[in-house]
Please model this.
Amino acid sequence: MQIKFLTRHFTSIVALAVSAVMAMSPVVAYAGDSYGSLSAEDGIDSIEDISVSSGDNAILPEDNIISSVSISAGDYSLLMEETPDIQPLNEIFPDNYLAIAVASALGISDLSVAVSQEQLDDVQTLTIDTVYIWSGVERLNNLNDIRLNPSSDYDVSNLTGLSAAPCDSLSINIVGEQSIQGDIASFSVLSNLVSLTINFNTNLTGELSSIKNLNKLTNLSIYFAQGVTGSLDDLSGLTDLKCL
Model:
């Protein structure tokens, strides 16, 4: 990653060049006869603080991720250029089924292929087999539709990891002939849930009132959920709920 800086509010600093690489020793930047500072408030996420003052040195922390820094004299605004954060799919998504689903959405067959955040932002719909670990879903900023077709009996408590999904609205459609088990209260943590459909062999339990705080919910279709107790009155506060 390369970041370029032009100093802001530096009055007479000499040209200053700093090169640093992750895991190397701290790099010392020698200052000229002027004062100025760059910090996280200036939009520098990967540096704790850079300061330059007369007679002092600026030290970059050991854990920085900078490959090149350039500072030039003058009164300019801070400029930053950086390459996207690129990682292999199977490192971003440790659950193999989730990694496969994301790869399929991106048209990729090799899970070891590195992808950028810009590519992940293209993922809106996932068709998935059986997922137990949703780690990495926080990187899917525009995910809004999940179609789950479990290959074996599935407990809905495994879906609580979707609470990390950053999207404003999320639809979940669970299909297939496998038994869908667990407490319906598991969905209560999905504050962005707008639609929930569970077809066929539903063996959910719990109180219907446990999801009454899902204020964005507009569609709820759960077939043969005889183990769920309560009445539609328990959801009367969900004014946008149109389909039951």
The CA atoms of residues 106 and 123 lie 7 Å apart. The mean pLDDT is 74. The chain has three helices and 17 strands.
